Amino acid sequence: MLLTFEVIAEALRGRIRSGELKPGDALPTQAVLMAGYGASSLSVQKAMALLKQDGYAISRPGKGAFVAHPDARLDADADTDTGDPEAGNPPVGGTAARVEALELALAEALKQLTALRGRVEALELSGKHRD
Q1: How many whole angstroms separate alpha carbon 55 and alpha carbon 45?
Q2: What's the mean pLDDT when you consider all of the chain?
Q3: Is residue 54 within 8 Å of 96, Cβ to Cβ?
Q4: pTM value?
Q5: Rounded to the nearest 10 degrees, what angle do helices 94-130 and 70-77 cross at?
Q6: Confidence band (pLDDT; 50, 70, 90) for 95?
Q7: Residue 49: phi, psi to the nearest 5?
Q8: How would you write the chain as a 3-class SS string?
Q9: Is 19 left (phi over 0), alpha (psi -120 to 50) or beta?
Q10: Is a pLDDT exceeding 80 seen at residue 131?
C-alpha cells in the first residue's frame, strides 16, 4: 500500500507522462493538493520533493512548482545538478532535490516542535493556576 505522499507524487507523474501537464506548466498548489487528497502539508511537501528528486518538477522561489523539461529527468537519473539560475532555471534532481526535501522536512518538524512546546507550556501554566 502506498503512503499518501507516494499516491500524490504518482498521480502527478501520471498527469505529466500523459501530457495533461506539460513542461513549464504550474503544478497544483499545496493547498489544492491538501484539499484534493485530504493530505497534510508534510505529505504534500514530501510528494513535491519526490517529484523534484525524480526530475519531474522544479521550484521557482516565490512562484511555485512547475513541470520540469524532460531532459531534467535524465539529469536527475545521473544524480547531477544542472541548470542556469541566472536564466531562471534552478538546479533540478540529484543532490539539490534531496537537500531541499530534507530542508522541507526539517522546517515542518521545527514547526511541529514549536507547536508542541506551546501546548506543553500552556498545560503547565494551567496546572499551576489550579494549585
Answers
A1: 15
A2: 80
A3: no
A4: 0.55
A5: 80
A6: low
A7: -60, -40
A8: CCCHHHHHHHHHHHHHHHCCCCCCCECCCHHHHHHHHCCCHHHHHHHHHHHHHCCCEEEECCCEEEECCHHHHHHHHCCCCEEEHHHCEEEECHHHHHHHHHHHHHHHHHHHHHHHHHHHHHHHHHHHHHC
A9: left
A10: no
Residue 103 CA to residue 126 CA, distance in Å, equals: 35
Indicate whether 1 pLDDT > 70: yes
Q: Give the number of other Cβ atoms within 10 Å of residue 40's Cβ.
A: 13
Give the position of cell 511537501.
Answer: 45
Which one is predicted more confidently, 65 or 130? 65
Residue with cell 516542535: 113
Residue 20: is its pLDDT beyond 60?
yes
Give whole-number Cα distances, 53 to 17, 93, 118, in Å: 16, 5, 34
Q: How many CB atoms lie within 10 A of CB 15?
A: 17
d(CA 51, CA 92): 10
Place of cell 541566472: 86
- Measuring CA to CA, which residue among 59, 26, 55 is closest to residue 45? 59
Instruction: Return the C-alpha cell found at 23.
Output: 513542461
